[in-house]
Amino acid sequence: MSVKLGIAPIAWSNDDMPELGGDTSLEQCLLEASQAGFIGIESGGKFPNKSEELIPKLNEFNLNLCSGWYGANLRKNTVEEEKKVIQDQLKLFKDCNAPCIVFAEVAGSIQGDPDKKLSTRPKMDEEESKNYYKKISEMGKYLQDQGMPLAYHHHMGTVIETEEDTIKLLENTDDSVKLTLDTGHMLFAQGNSLEILKNFSDRVIHMHCKDIRKNVLDKSLKEDLSFRGAFLEGAFTVPGDGCIDYKPLFDVLKEKNYSGWLVVEAEQDPAKANPFEYAKIGYKYLTETLNKSNIQIFKN
After folding, report:
1. Which of 138, 143, 145, 207 has its Cα between 20 and 30 A from that of 234?
2. Tens digit of pLDDT for each residue in 159-168?
3. Report field, pTM of the whole predicted structure over 0.90
4. Residue 53 to residue 103: CA distance in whole angstroms
């Protein structure tokens, strides 16, 4: 088995807050991601949305498209409506041979609202949950048939946020619904990524390696900050710069023969946290820790 190392462009340019890294070019992002050692990058707002433009750009920097965010509105839309909305991104990802779509529910989400405390995030009652699980299962089966698996992303400020939310989603949906395990979001929600990996390894097909600065996390929880407020305070960072020990997680990956992507992702203000320097920190930590777990790293 071997894993592939990728990175998210959010450290260079934040799509939710364009003022953060707004002047940073896509070319700088791709160049620095490649120079830091990564062979893949997730999609972002500055990326071309046509494969005939994106593929040559990725090839120029020897990078693969290793997935990307899709914000769904299945709580409001019918499955057929959502299928229509996803078509352009689905085609792009298929053309670029991406491994999956990082799929998250954004209907009612407070993740981008600086005035909404995290405790006010949306929740579903039992009836809505049952209906939602059915819809997600239908989307999972559809995307699986398209060769582009749905990798659900539990996310702060959304209806699927906690370990309990995530477990209920996995236990009540079809096996075609896979998971993007985000270590930072899981810890922020006071959940246990290790238990998710141990118990649902067959559903985890993508991982976001996001670390947490514990002092900022404690403050964020104590003061019930907004999601945006927490990340602007510096809650998130790259592996090797926070409090998460990835060795136990990687030991489970080794045991379960995980061979997907590990994607470094950390929402930070690039003016405070130089994206290239932090990319190198994340890459160095992951490579050293994977080596300790006897996991090989795939090279282009």
Report:
1. 207
2. 999 999 999 9
3. yes
4. 23
